Amino acid sequence: MDLESQAGRASTSVIRRVIAIAMLVAAIPAALAAAVIGVFVAASQLSVPLMIFFAGLASAALMMLLLGYVAAKVLRSARPLGFASVGSIGVPAVLGIIALTYLSPEEAAPETLRSPAVPFQLWDLDTGTRAAVRQVTSRGVTERPPIVFLHGGPGGYSVSLEATVAALGGLADDGHSIYFYDQVGGGLSTRLADITQYTLDRHLADLNAIVRRIDGGPVILVGSSFGASLAANYMARYPDHVAAAIVSGAAPMFYPHYAEIGDGKIDDVLSDSRRAKMREIVETPRVFTALALAAVNPNAAVRFAPDAELGALFDRVANEVYLPATVCPGNTVGFRSKGYGFWSNRMTGRTLSNQAYDPRPDLSNNQTPVLVIRGECDYKKADVALEYVEVIPNSRIISMAGAGHMPYLERPDAYLEHVRQFLKTTLRRGEY
After folding, report:
1. pLDDT by residue (tens digit) across 280-310?
2. DSSP label of 402
3. Long-range contacts (CB closer than 8 Å, 24 or more residues apart) made by 280-284
4. pLDDT in tens, 157-199
5. What share of the chain has pLDDT > 70, as a percent?
6. What is the Cα–Cα distance from 143 to 285, expressed in whole angstroms?
7. Taking a C-beta distance cutoff of 8 angstroms, is the pair 206, 131 a contact?
8. How far apart are the C-alpha atoms of 132 and 323, rounded to whole Å?
């Protein structure tokens, strides 16, 4: 009986050890899961990255303490709390070191930093935006309606883009003063502390404030990509403020319409090598963490990864991946991106996807003359540009050979000729 009893106790001891070891092994992934859950629970309540980080480590420590204590009790340790505390300190410490190693920011390359060395003014708008504005003053004898250029993005810029200013500046010779401004969150304009305020409505309010400051309009809107969408939505809400509009590289007027069929993304035309380059730049633990935080608490995300950091990263993507894909084969882009606003792009994009107001019914009764210019190599679907013509009564479309998404940069002379001809035939008699 004694031998059987000893064998039974030995067997029980082995089983206890196996169970305890299994619990300790399982404790590591459990602690990692607890850390992730702790981070996102904390992020839903807090916007301070350091506090969120420590909340994750504390969650991991508690999980290790709990499972370590149970394992110690299974082993019938004389000091279960002391046994458990070893893992509750060691594992979170290792997780903390790993997190600091992989989530620390990388220093931006100098070439991606914004330079303010261009002639511009800062306009304090009643919306709270401090907008960078650059004016090319009319050089003509007759003063004609001013032109406001709406760049793409969201998150793009135009004030410091000499190629764009040079391409469109020729219209000053025809009597137009031209205003280039960086939309909120991009270029030299305000970066918002509360990034949930990057919305289509905010962009429209800023544009209206600028138009009011330019003698109240009416103005001629020249929109590129997202700027085309902005122009269409502005025309629908403020029809009396717009004398005419010219759009190119047109993005949707109403994004939800293209949710299922797609409007044409630049990713669709990327080569395998450019896709690989983009993954190399953006698929990092830090970027993934920032995007995951943004889904829970956008303002925690921007404090973790500020706009200056992710904007510089976006500039790299633009320069090395996107911009070469916006032009026809054999053409080059005449600039390097140095001022993209990542969070403006990300957050405004959310509001576009969930856009409630559909401008198309109002535009169907709008008699403002509109010219749609589409480059033959534009990655945006032709149906998007055609919808402008189908919806807006007084509109027409021109296809430009040898040009892509930004025809005013690839073929500026041909682009200006189309614009001048359009304005001559559509504006009031005697203005040209």
Report:
1. 999 999 999 999 999 999 999 999 999 999 9
2. T
3. 281/313, 281/316, 281/317, 281/320, 281/321, 282/313, 282/317, 284/102
4. 999 999 999 999 999 999 999 999 999 999 999 999 999 999 9
5. 90
6. 54
7. yes
8. 23
Amino acid code (one letter) for 247: V
Alpha-carbon dihedral 222, 270, 329, 375, rounded to 10 degrees: -30
Lookup result for tokens 């004898």: 141
Alpha carbon dihedral 423, 427, 429, 432, in 10-degree steps, equals: -40
Judged by DSSP in three states, 354 sits in coil
Q: Within 10 A of 120 (CB to CB), how many other CB atoms are there? A: 19
Measure the CA angle with vertex 94, ends 88 and 99; round to 5°.
120
175 close to 144: Cβ distance less than 8 angstroms: yes
Dist CA 430 CA 62 (whole Å): 79
Render pLDDT for 310-360 as a digit per residue (tens, 0 to 9). Answer: 999 999 999 999 999 999 998 888 889 999 999 999 999 999 999 999 999
β-pair partners for 135: 179
Tell me the C-alpha distance between 428 and 218, whole Å: 12
Burial of 19 (0-12, 13-18, 19+ CB in 10 A): middle
Burial per residue of 342-375, b for 16 or more beta-carbon CB atoms within 10 angstroms, e otherwise: bbbbbbbbbbbeebeeebbebbeebebbbbbbbb
Q: Name all contacts of 322-326 with Cβ < 8 Å and 24+ positions apart.
A: 322/266, 324/274, 325/266, 325/269, 325/270, 325/271, 325/274, 325/379, 326/249, 326/266, 326/379, 326/404, 326/405, 326/406
Helices marked H in 75-133: 80-103
Going by DSSP bridges, is the β-strand pair 178-181/130-136 parallel, antiparallel, or unpaired?
antiparallel
73-93: pLDDT as tens digits: 776 766 777 766 777 788 778
Tell me the pLDDT band of 429, cut-offs 50, 70 and 90: very low
Tokens matching residue 418: 């189309």
Do 264 and 379 form a contact (C-beta atoms < 8 A)? yes
pLDDT digits (tens, 9 = 90+) for 389-399: 999 999 999 99
- Cα separation, 84 vs 80, whole angstroms: 6
